[in-house]
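Sequence, please.
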C-alpha cells in the first residue's frame, strides 16, 4: 500500500488525509470516553524475560493463571526464542502446556523464526507474535540481522503461521528511539508496518522499547503511521523508563487507538535494550482507563492480587503506583 504523504501541519485543512487525521483525533478523543479498550498483558513474557534470576516454571504458570482470572482477554505467555539469547524463556513449552487456558482468552507467544514457530505449533499455540525493529542497531542486537533481513525472514514465518490458521501479531520495536542508533524516523516505522500488514498481521504493536518517547515524538510517529495504517490495526506498547508511558498512551488513545500493551506490576525490559525498565503497569493503566469511563473488562482488585503475587516472589516493591496505593486496602 502506498504511503500517502503531504507536508501540511496536519491541521485538517489541506487534504483528505489530514481531515481524516483530525476526524480521527476528535472521534478518538470522544471515543475513549465510552469505548472499550483491549489490554494486551505482556507481563509473563516482556515482564519476566529480563529477570536476572531464573523464575521457576510453576511461578510463571501461577502468575498467568492469576492473570487469566482478571478479565484480561490477551495474555502473552512466553517466547519460543533461542535459550542462549533469552534463558528465562527456555521453559516455554512447559509454561504454555501447563497454564489453564480460559475460554475467550488468547495466549500468544513470540516467535522470531520458523524454528520457533514450529516449536510453538507443536504445543498447540493458536496465536504468535513476530517482532522486528524500526532501527538497525536494535535489530542486530536483538535478532542478529538487519531490518531488511528481518522483514524477509518474517514473511515466511507469517505465511506458514497463516497457512496453519494461527493469528499473527507484529511488534515493531524502537519506534521513537533506539539504544544504539538514537532517534528513529517515523518513516522507518511505517516501512516495517507496511510490510507486516501486507504479510498478514492482524495488529501491529508499536513499541517505545526504551521509554524515551514524549507526547510530541509519539504524536509525530503515530500521525505518520496513521497515513498508512488505520488505528484499529495498531496497538501502543510503552516502557516507562522516563515516566512518560501513561501520557504517551493517552496520546495514542486521542488518535483513535484502542489496544494498549502493559505489564502487571510494571515488570519488564528487553535483554537487548540496556537500561530499559518495565512496561507501563497494567494496574495503573486500568485505573486510568476506568477513570476515563473506558471499558476494559478487567477487575482491578483481582489484577492487584496478581501483581502482588509476582512482586512478593521477586521480593521487591511493585512498580505499579496503584498496586502500592490500593493493596493494603483490599
Ligand atoms: C532470533 C535468534 C534465534 C537468531 O539468533 P542466531 O544466532 O542468529 O540464530 P541461529 O539460527 O544461528 O541459531 C543460533 C542457535 O539458536 C538456536 N535457535 C534459533 N532459533 C531458535 C528458536 N526460535 N528457538 C530455540 N532455539 C533457536 C539454533 O538452533 C542455534 O542453536 P545451536 O546450534 O547454537 O545449538 C536470536 O537472536 C533470538 O532468539 N533472539 C531473541 C531475542 C529476544 O527474544 N528478545 C526479546 C523479545 S523482543 C522485545 O522484548 C521487544 C518487544 C517485543 O517487547 C517490544 C518492545 O518493547 O519493543
Amino acid at each position: 500500500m502506498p504511503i500517502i504523504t503531504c507536508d501540511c501541519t496536519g491541521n485538517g485543512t489541506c487534504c483528505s488525509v489530514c481531515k481524516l487525521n483530525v476526524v480521527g483525533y476528535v472521534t478518538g478523543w470522544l471515543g475513549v470516553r465510552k469505548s472499550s479498550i483491549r489490554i494486551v498483558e505482556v507481563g509473563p513474557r516482556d515482564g519476566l524475560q529480563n529477570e536476572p534470576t531464573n523464575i521457576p516454571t510453576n511461578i510463571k504458570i501461577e502468575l498467568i493463571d492469576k492473570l487469566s482470572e482478571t478479565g484480561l482477554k490477551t495474555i502473552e505467555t512466553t517466547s519460543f526464542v533461542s535459550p542462549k539469547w533469552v534463558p528465562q524463556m527456555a521453559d516455554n513449552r512447559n509454561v504454555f502446556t501447563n497454564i489453564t487456558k480460559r475460554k475467550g482468552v488468547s495466549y500468544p507467544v513470540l516467535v522470531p523464526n520458523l524454528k520457533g514457530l514450529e516449536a510453538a505449533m507443536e504445543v498447540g499455540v493458536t496465536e504468535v507474535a513476530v517482532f522486528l525493529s524500526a532501527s538497525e542497531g536494535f535489530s542486530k542486537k536483538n535478532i542478529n540481522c538487519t531490518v531488511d533481513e528481518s522483514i524477509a525472514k518474517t514473511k515466511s514465518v507469517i505465511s506458514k503461521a497463516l497457512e496453519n490458521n494461527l493469528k499473527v501479531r507484529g511488534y515493531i520495536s524502537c519506534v521513537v528511539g533506539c539504544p544504539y542508533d538514537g532517534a528513529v524516523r517515523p518513516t522507518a516505522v511505517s516501512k516495517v508496518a507496511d510490510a507486516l500488514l501486507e504479510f498478514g498481521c492482524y495488529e501491529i504493536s508499536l513499541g517505545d522499547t526504551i521509554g524515551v518517547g514524549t507526547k510530541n515524538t509519539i504524536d509525530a510517529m503515530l500521525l505518520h503511521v496513521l497515513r498508512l495504517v488505520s488505528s484499529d490495526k495498531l496497538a501502543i506498547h510503552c516502557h516507562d523508563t522516563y515516566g512518560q508511558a501513561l501520557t504517551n498512551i493517552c496520546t495514542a488513545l486521542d488518535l483513535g487507538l484502542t489496544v494498549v500493551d502493559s505489564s502487571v506490576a510494571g515488570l519488564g525490559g528487553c535483554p537487548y535494550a540496556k537500561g530499559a525498565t518495565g512496561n507501563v503497569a497494567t494496574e495503573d493503566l486500568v485505573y486510568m482507563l476506568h477513570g476515563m469511563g473506558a471499558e476494559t473488562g478487567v477487575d482491578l482488585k483481582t489484577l492487584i492480587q496478581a501483581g502482588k503475587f509476582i512482586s512478593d516472589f521477586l521480593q521487591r516493591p511493585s512498580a505499579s503506583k496503584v498496586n502500592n496505593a490500593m493493596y493494603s486496602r483490599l
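Residues 16-32 form the longest helix (17 residues).
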